[in-house]
């Protein structure tokens, strides 16, 4: 490749740049704005007597010969372009601007084609950026937090506790809340994973494995159930009670003690049950929901604190697209999920990795392995044995910033075929008081 510098030996600028008086060369000078210039050079091969003749080796520019080879013509165009820019900069520095540009390299006949001003076209759309999709939350600004349910749900209260003054975004399903964060509709999601009476919410454990969100915190919310009905309705008029399955199970004994001979039907969420009754004016139906739901949907509270156990607490996790940096200046908890080809026989070795390092486990949960639910073991003596394959979810009290936690996971990885860290996050250390029932 030939150099395009002005010192090219075979190039004579005086022979290239001509005045308008030169015969056979039509060059015009157009005055344009100071922002942009475009140099257009039209080249063609000279042919003999017909178009079928072979092209010659010489170029011309509108019948003005420029050198004897193609590379000389290309070099000339490049040098002219550099001269235009240089002349424009010199003119702007001298205060002349675009109006002061009367010649280039001392010749007033350079063919400059002006670019039309941008206001002559419709404005182009601005490309989207991450800031357009989800502004980075500044300190004190509102976060968009997704939760499952409708306003008045316990998940909304958990979102408010986890992120005060946040903008809560209701979702009709748990998976929609995951997708809202993944699609930048929400910044965080707050979802329940276990209850002190009803146990684990298995659906969310499965979704944690299916999606790529990270646990960045936890919040524990005391649950205070109320029996709600339309204003003026008495307990004796009720024929059914509707609520979330967890809420129904958590109030089962109390409803029996109250002497209510009613059918119990499960719906998607507690506050949704109150909304359904209020929307359809159902005077024979009650809902188990929060006191806030009664306020939002104009319901009256027939009984307060009807949960079977006053120590009813639901644990929620906070999910984000990116993990947080583990620290050691406060108590941390880490959640992992793992599996092994040899089934549950490796579980003891995994647990030993934490026991030897004095790491306390706060939870262990097993879920069927969806991709391989059954494992077959051939044995000549007893035939073919069928075993269920499991994924194990474990929470332990340590931060990934600690060496003992890193060493424990390194040992666990030796025994497992699959290991994933769901998150390392601060523990919820806020005190709480048990709910009391008011008859």
Automatic annotation (TrEMBL):
Domain of life assignment: Eukaryota
All residue ranges annotated as the Prephenate dehydratase domain in the record: 144-321
Ranges of residues in domain ACT: 335-426
UniProt xrefs under PROSITE patterns: ACT, PREPHENATE_DEHYDR_1, PREPHENATE_DEHYDR_2, PREPHENATE_DEHYDR_3
Pfam family name, one: PDT
Keyword Cell inner membrane: no
Main location as per UniProt: plastid
Keywords recorded for this protein, A-Z: Amino-acid biosynthesis, Aromatic amino acid biosynthesis, Chloroplast, Lyase, Phenylalanine biosynthesis, Plastid, Transit peptide
Listed EC numbers: 4.2.1.91
Location in or out of the cell: Plastid, Chloroplast stroma
Catalytic activity of the protein: L-arogenate + H(+) = L-phenylalanine + CO2 + H2O
Pathway: Amino-acid biosynthesis; L-phenylalanine biosynthesis; L-phenylalanine from L-arogenate: step 1/1
Database matches in InterPro entries: ACT-like_dom_sf, ACT_dom, Preph_deHydtase, Preph_deHydtase_CS
Function (record text): Converts the prephenate produced from the shikimate-chorismate pathway into phenylalanine.
Name of this chain's protein: Arogenate dehydratase
């Amino acid at each position: 490749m030939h150099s395009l510098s002005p010192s090219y030996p075979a190039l004579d600028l005086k022979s290239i740049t001509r005045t308008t008086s030169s015969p056979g060369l039509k060059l015009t000078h157009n005055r344009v704005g100071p922002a942009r210039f475009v140099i257009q050079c039209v080249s063609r091969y000279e042919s003999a007597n017909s178009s079928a003749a072979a092209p010659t080796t010489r170029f011309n520019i509108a019948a003005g010969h420029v050198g004897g080879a193609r590379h000389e013509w290309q070099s000339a165009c490049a040098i002219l372009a550099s001269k235009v820019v240089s002349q424009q900069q010199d003119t702007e520095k001298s205060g002349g601007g675009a109006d002061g540009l009367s010649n280039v390299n001392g010749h007033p006949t350079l063919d400059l084609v002006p670019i039309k001003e941008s206001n002559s076209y419709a404005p182009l759309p601005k490309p989207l950026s991450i800031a357009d999709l989800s502004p980075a939350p500044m300190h004190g600004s509102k976060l968009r937090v997704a939760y499952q349910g409708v306003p008045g749900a316990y998940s909304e209260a958990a979102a408010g506790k986890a992120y005060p003054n946040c903008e809560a975004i209701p979702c009709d399903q748990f998976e929609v809340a995951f997708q809202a964060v993944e699609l930048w509709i929400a910044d965080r999601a707050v979802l329940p994973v276990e209850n002190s009476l009803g146990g684990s919410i298995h659906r969310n454990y499965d979704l944690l494995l299916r999606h790529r969100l990270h646990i960045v915190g936890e919040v524990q919310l005391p649950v205070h159930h109320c029996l709600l009905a339309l204003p003026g309705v008495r307990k004796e008029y009720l024929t059914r009670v509707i609520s979330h399955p967890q809420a129904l199970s958590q109030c089962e004994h109390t409803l029996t003690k109250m002497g209510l001979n009613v059918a119990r039907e499960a719906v998607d969420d507690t506050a949704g049950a109150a909304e359904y009754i209020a929307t359809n004016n159902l005077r024979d139906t009650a809902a188990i929901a929060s006191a806030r739901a009664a306020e939002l949907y104009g319901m009256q509270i027939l009984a307060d604190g009807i949960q079977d156990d006053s120590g009813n607490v639901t644990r929620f996790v906070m999910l984000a697209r990116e993990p947080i940096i583990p620290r050691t200046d406060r108590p941390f908890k880490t959640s992992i999920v793992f599996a092994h080809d040899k089934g549950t026989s490796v579980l003891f070795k995994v647990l030993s990795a934490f026991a030897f390092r004095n790491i306390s486990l706060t939870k262990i949960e097993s879920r069927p392995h969806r991709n391989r639910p059954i494992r077959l073991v051939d044995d000549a003596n007893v035939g073919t044995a069928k075993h269920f394959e499991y994924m194990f979810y474990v929470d332990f009290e340590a931060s990934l910033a600690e060496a003992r936690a890193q060493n424990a996971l390194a040992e666990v990885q030796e025994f497992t075929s699959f290991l994933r860290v769901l998150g390392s996050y601060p523990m919820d250390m806020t005190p709480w008081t048990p709910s009391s029932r008011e008859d």
